[in-house]
Amino acid sequence: MSQFDLEIVVSNLEHYTTTNEEAFHGGALSDAKVILLTCEAYANLASALLLLNHDVASFQRQLNLGAQLYLIALQSKEQRQLDPYYMCRTMGKPLFSAIAAKNTSLAQRICQNMPDKFQADFDYEDDFLYFGLIELLIAQQRDEDNIEAALKKFFTASEQGASLRYQVMESICEKNQVQFDEAFVDLIDERELSFQENDLKPDFALTGRHIFVEGVALAHLAKINGMLLQPQYNTLPDICL
After folding, report:
1. Please, what's the b/e burial string for 89-128 (b: 16 or more CB within 10 A of its CB; e: otherwise)?
2. Strand, coil or helix: what is 161?
């Protein structure tokens, strides 16, 4: 990956996000899928700028822009008649952008506007419960009873606790530092292995492939809930933790 390649990707992503953002606010963009792709493009742009310039402020700014776009889409989904499939909780990845940008208040507002009812035609149960747990852990005050109940449901939906994502969330909920240290590294490694088995979109291969935004978000979530982080993680630059 050369600097020239990254500069081209940055230029393309800046054009794509700016064009779609203007169309969205002007009322010309009502395709929910494209809106989510624009949020994803903001995350890729954030990663590209971090890789190119080690610019944490720009990284967080672009993540915030994508998360804010998503929030407005959630708030206006009926008015804009956005496809409910793309607005279901399972599709809530822009929430990670808000948390990774350390914008807790924005993350809380996104959670408040995400659908809180499971939609069998749209949602995957484990993803739905995953986002529900994140909402509880990002709240201003921990509700231990609700966290315990939500974790039990997530256990059942996550291969009886076999998934690494569940193990990370369980360790944060229960403040189990030893389990968190192991499960979080394993989750990062699992993501890395998955890339070796799948074709990647060109822009993502140069950008988000190298910065695990969801991982950065989980690291911040862990810190908010009293966990300690290791000095370094693969694909999680220490300057953004």
Report:
1. bbbbbbbbbbbbbbbbebbbbbbebbbeeeeeebbeebbb
2. coil
Q: What is the pLDDT along the chain (241 residues), one digit of tens a residue?
A: 688 989 999 999 999 999 999 999 999 999 999 999 999 999 999 999 999 999 999 999 999 999 999 999 999 999 999 999 999 999 999 999 999 999 999 999 999 999 999 999 999 999 999 999 999 999 999 999 999 999 999 999 998 999 999 999 999 999 999 999 999 999 999 999 988 767 788 889 889 999 999 999 999 999 999 999 999 999 999 999 9
Rounded to whole angstroms, the Cα distance separating 21 from 24 reads: 5
Token pair in block for residue 6: 């990254």
pTM over 0.85: yes
Terminal C-alpha separation, the chain: 24
Q: No. of H helices and E strands in the chain?
A: 13, 0
- Phi and psi at 230, nearest 5°, equal -75, 160
- Phi/psi zone of residue 83: left (φ > 0), alpha (ψ -120 to 50 degrees), beta? beta
Count of positions (residues) in the chain: 241
Domain boundaries, the chain: 3-240
Task: Write down the H helix ranges in 101-158.
Answer: 104-113, 125-138, 144-157
Helix (H) or strand (E) holding 86: helix 84-87
